[in-house]
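Archive entry. Fields below.
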Amino acid sequence: MPIARELPDVAVKLAQADRRRSSFTRLVFVVMAKDLRAELRTKEAVNASLAFAVVILVLFNFAFDLDDAATRMIIGGLLWLVFAFAGTLVLNRSFARELPNDCLDALVAAPVSGATLFLGKALANYVLVLAVELVSLPVFGILYNVWFPFGQMIIILALGTWALTVIGTVFSALTVNIRLREVMLPMLTYPMLVPALMGAMVLTAQLAAGTSIWGESATWLKVLTGFDVLYTAAALALVETVLVG
Amino acid sequence: MRDKILYGMGLAALFLLGFDIYKIANFPPEAAQGAIFKIIFFHVPAAWTAMVAAGTALVCSILFLMKKDFKYDAIAVASTEVGLAFLAVNLVTGSMWGHVIWGIWWTWDVRLTSALVCWLLYAGYLMLRHAIEEPTQRATYAAVFSIFAFLDVPVVYFSIRLFRTQHPGPVFLSSTGSFPPDWGMVLLLNWVALLLLAIVMTIVRLGHEQTQREIDYVRRMAHAL
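PREDICTED_STRUCTURE:
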């Protein structure tokens, strides 16, 4: 049981970090490293997410039967739908992973704030979802023959994925103990993500059409950034209530 | 006494609605759009009522998290359900207007989409409540979700000013508006009528929630025994 093996290690590290009067950042990285290590040992969420992303990409080809021009027009939407679907698989596991052996209770009882736990988990999810996206992107490029300028695409990915991760992580905590967890998470997450997904889709489509994201569509960058800041602040303020009550 | 006030408010709302409908029916058709324009007397007040309900839900959710008093949770869920009904009225009347004027029932315009997203969010709030059995956890999680959902409401309100849109510009509370003052008065009166109706519905729903809390209490006692 990797999770059971993981627990004392993390508990000791958190206690050591506390003794050294560690900074908030250090504690966040301890939680993040623990989540990443647990996932990389089993790779269950990342593998499932990646396989799911590739399957949807193939299915979209049959669903739309696109020529080159049409592909470029709807590319932003397709890509971000795949990212949102595949990302949810990773996010669903984020708190559910802690349920066996009452690991979630141990984490909540650790001498760290809810905001620390949340940020650590959100950052681990961010790395995992971003990794899935960065692997899917070349697969997408090969299958649909669309390539993006890397520098600008990475900005859209960074902002869009943080929106997906911050909302997904806080709702993953909200739904971890309830019935129909797997259905509830996407049902609550996607409507809330609409402004961010819309922004990321428009920007990606413009990039595919050869337009820079700094031009006319820069408003969407502001929307995306504003969304990230707003919901990160709300999540940090409310996560203690969700975890502790 | 509470029942008498409730019936009184309900009757006042119905009387006001009847008066407004009589006045609206006697207004001449609008020059460009004809009679269908009059749907605005219900479309806009329904949206405002839904916003007031969402605001009430937000305030009560915050108060619940601060004071842990289930009275606020009950008001939050009651006003969310009523707000959802009024937002549905807003969406349906808007869709009817769109069918006549634009020739389509629906368009993926930013403002329409935002209203639909808000509806989905608050429907999600109710589904989240149904999925949680433990009352304290249900109230806490629902309050947190309600705060998150409300952050989406300003996007609806300001989207018409922020984005280019197919939706008509605001005709009230705006320098570019061209709404006749007597029509505006009837619209405000209609809003008062809908608000009264919403308050009556919320109080009736609060009664249901009170019964639910008593059932929860009995269930907890049964578990304890």
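CURATOR_NOTE: Residues 24 and 183 of chain B are 8 Å apart (CA to CA).
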